[in-house]
Amino acid sequence: MSRARLSRRSLALTAAAVTLGATFYGVGAATADNSVPRSDKEIPNLTDVVNEIKAYYGDTVDASGEHFASADSSYARQLAGIEAKATSDLAHALHKGGHGGHGKPAIVLDVDDTSVITYNYELEVGFNYSPASNQAYLDSKNMPAVFGMDTLANWAADQGVTVFWITGRPESQRADTVRNLTAVGYKSAPDTDHLYLKDKVNPPAYLSCGSTCTTIQYKSGTRAHIESLGYDIIGNFGDQYSDLSGGYADKSFKLPNPMYFLP
Ligand SMILES: [Mg+2]
């Protein structure tokens, strides 16, 4: 994704603090929000948080030092519950036939931490994403499928549902993304008609925000485009709320991700 995460988040927090300071100056803004802790005790200890994340993913390490999430982890169990609900909802929509829309049924998946797990990469870079380290990682390794999402997507395809991916990854990561999705068990073709990456250099004409789209504008605008092609998106899957906001999906499913937040 085009996520200069920490810097963007820091900027947002700074902007929020400035706004609050201006609006509530003298009222004690620090008590009205949590952006400025008064004590270190109000801040989760970073080492503890990382250890909690590793426990949640059921951290396992192979002989070469690569970290993996475990299939019997809390993460996998939480996913299984969401996927069971989603499968039931999708089956119901397909059975009803109308599925509230007027087109060919489709689902949309985000890529990172929705279709494939970034956990090993995130640990490798200390949760500090950079385009360069991410590109180097994708060039040399595949990320494993998010537990159960390959099964869900393949099941949907077997029911006649068209599978689309919309990712914030840049267009330059198309080949790596196609290779990875195919290698880890996604049977629907992530071809150019079904895998949308963010193209800031030559943005598609249907995105009126062009090269300046926010994630929500880019993703919802691309879903609108898909529906304009005659599809009805009966399910939209993402690990970030910005994957899911903005409409153009009958149902949205939020997958867990305690590792980072993307506006
Ligand atoms: Mg994601």
Describe this structure in words.
There is one protein chain. With 263 residues, this protein is of the alpha/beta class. It folds into 2 domains: 1-43; 74-254, 3-Layer(aba) Sandwich (Rossmann fold), CATH 3.40.50. 42% of the residues lie in helices and 13% in strands. The protein is built from 10 helices and 7 strands. The chain has a 5-stranded parallel β-sheet, sandwiched between helices. A two-stranded antiparallel sheet has the order 1-2. It is globular. Mean pLDDT is 89; it is low at 4-32. Residues 110, 112-114, 238-240 line the site of magnesium ion.
Quick overview:
This protein is of the alpha/beta class and 263 residues long. It folds into two domains: 1-43; 74-254, Rossmann fold (3-Layer(aba) Sandwich). It contains ten helices and seven strands.
Write the layout of secondary structure elements.
Layout: H1 5-23, H2 29-32, H3 46-56, E1 60-61, E2 67-68, H4 74-96, E3 104-109, H5 119-124, H6 131-140, H7 149-158, E4 162-170, H8 174-183, E5 195-198, H9 215-228, E6 231-238, H10 241-244, E7 252-254
Parallel strand pairs: 3-4, 3-6, 4-5, 6-7
Antiparallel strand pairs: 1-2
This protein binds magnesium ion.
